[in-house]
Design brief:
With 129 residues, this protein is α/β, with parallel strands linked by helices. Helices cover 18% and strands 28% of the residues. It has a single domain, classed as Transcription elongation factor, GreA/GreB, C-terminal domain (Chitinase A, domain 3). The strands form 2 sheets. The protein has a 5-stranded mixed β-sheet with strand order 5-4-3-7-6. It has a two-stranded parallel ribbon with strand order 1-2. 33% of the residues are buried. This is Transcription elongation factor GreA/GreB C-terminal domain-containing protein.
Length: 129
């Protein structure tokens, strides 16, 4: 349940290539099922690598800011979430308004909704992050 199969994921070709090199069970299905587009074609409302996003756990939930990153840059207390974590992989490729579903290490089901994208590298013309 680390990723939702009912939600279509949209990834950039460069993210797909880099993530394919990581040995992560949580990413394998997502990468196999994702729609892949060239970086300049990715809509600006899609969570890509190094996107800064606001999520909430419900309609009135408090907003929390996270940045989706590679494992070597992860600092969960500062909001930098590894794409190899269940939470991180559940966010990748989602659009604003969609829900991320995952299981915590303790086995609890969690859900948050992507409320907005504060920064997406591709939207600023940065295709190298």
């Amino acid at each position: 349940m680390s990723t939702s199969k009912t939600v279509e994921r949209l990834l950039t070709r460069s993210d797909h290539i880099r993530l394919s090199q990581l040995a992560s069970d949580g990413l394998a299905d997502l990468l196999a099922d994702a729609q892949v587009v060239e970086p300049p074609s990715i809509p600006d409302d899609v969570v890509t690598m190094y996107s800064q996003i606001l999520v909430a756990d419900g309609p009135q939930g408090q907003l929390q800011k996270f940045t989706l990153c590679y494992p070597e840059d992860a600092e969960p207390p500062r909001g930098f979430i590894s794409v190899c974590s269940p939470f991180g992989s559940s966010l990748l490729g989602l659009r604003v308004g969609q829900a991320a579903h995952w299981l915590t290490p303790g086995g609890d089901a969690r859900t948050v909704w992507v409320r907005s994208i504060l920064f997406q590298p591709e939207a600023t013309g940065d295709y190298a992050l």
